[in-house]
Amino acid sequence: MTVQTTTVTTAAATTARTHAALPAPTTLPPAPAPAPTAAPAATDPYLDGFERILVDAATTGRRLTRDEIESRRALGARAAAAGQGWRGLVRAHLAAGRDHWPRAADPRDALRVVEQAVDAFADGYEQAQRLTIRKEEAARREFIDDLLHGVGDSGRLAARCERFGLRLSRAHAVAVAEGPEPYDETDAVPRQVADELFGRFENRRILFTTKDGRMVCVAPADQSEILTHFAKHAYATTGSAQVAIGRPRPGALGIGQSYEEALNALDVAQRMGFDEPLLRAADLLVFPVLARDRQALVDLVDSTLGPLENARGGARPLLDTLTAYFDTGCVSAAAARQLSLSVRALTYRLERVHSLTGVDPTDPADRYTLHTAVLGARLLDWPARPLLPAETTS
């Protein structure tokens, strides 16, 4: 019995010592103060009045008034003009609706108010965006017209070039593609060509547009692969486009000059019957030289080839014979194959030309004059377009 008592006493003492060693209970620290209100978000100015409208309209179950809807539209237009992103604005409206939800209101009424407010806000936002796009497009078209025609103040034109991605410290060349039908920038063909062009050269300074139904590409002169790629895909997309590339020119006015050269190359190709898909103005310089003095060219055609109109069947068959003869390097067999004639028939036609004009196509001394007259006739579209009396020699 004595041992048991001692054991119990010892355990009790040990327990007492253990409780004594524990620290006294302490009071919990007070709850942290609420975090300070965050600084207003960039979208807050465009929510002005939204909380009041939400509480008032949702609580009474009414629809938004005309003035409230107009206020939302005005704020939407302001947000678009300031360049605010649509996603952030919608998120801000939803967050404001959640934070200021009128608990006493029917949830359906509250949601209807949020829907009306956001819809009116979106209407103003979209209208302002459309107006901005129209203004930008008008400014871009005006810039393109001034750039390609070389009009306007050169300093102002240079400043606008930087805005639209062109750096005038470099020379540029212009390529013009003419397809089987006129195109506008909204058409599928130009969009497809532009997507391919900018997808391949996304970091290059390129200008792509349409002008007078043709596709136009402006690129730095030292990056000729851009215009070649443009020509390749313009032809592939349309199936029959002909592309002309003007010579590289420096400055803003030089872009207009390169554009005019490309247009002239297309015109020459049409008059001369060139069907190559890619033309370079530098390779066709002789034709503008011939056409520069129109009166002299008319005189040459009239005096040299005019007598061919006295032939049976008119001048066209003999003119076509001369064209094929010169295009094949004055090789009779090749020219005959091109015209589906026998060599004997071709020779007879050449002799007929000699007898009518007094100029022998087979004589090297006469060949240059006759060839130049044939080129002039193609440029003047003669004899399909008769020479005007005022243009012929008196």
Short descriptors:
394 residues, alpha+beta, 15 helices, elongated, disordered N terminus
How is this structure best described in words?
- This protein has helices spanning 2-21, 50-60, 66-81, 86-99, 107-149, 154-163, 188-200, 224-238, 251-272, 286-292, 294-305, 316-327, 332-339, 343-357, 364-380, and strands at residues 172-178, 207-211, 214-220, 242-245, 278-280.
- Helices cover 60% and strands 7% of the residues.
- 29% of the residues are buried.
- Helix 2 runs antiparallel to helix 5 (107-149), helix 5 (107-149) packs across helix 9 (251-272) and helix 7 (188-200) runs antiparallel to helix 8 (224-238).
- It has 15 helices and 5 strands.
- Helix 9 (251-272) links the parallel strand 4 (242-245) and strand 5.
- With 394 residues, it is an alpha+beta fold.
- It has a 5-stranded mixed beta sheet with strand order 2-3-1-4-5, with helices on both faces.
Question: Count of DSSP helices?
Answer: 15
Strand order of the largest sheet: 2-3-1-4-5
The first-to-last residue Cα distance is: 160 Å
The portion of residues forming beta strands comes to 5-15%
Query: How many beta-strand segments?
Result: 5
Question: What string gives the helices and strands in order?
Answer: HHHHHHEHEEHEHEHHHHHH
Structural class: alpha+beta
Low-pLDDT runs of 5+ residues are: 1-40, 390-394
Largest sheet: 5 strands, mixed
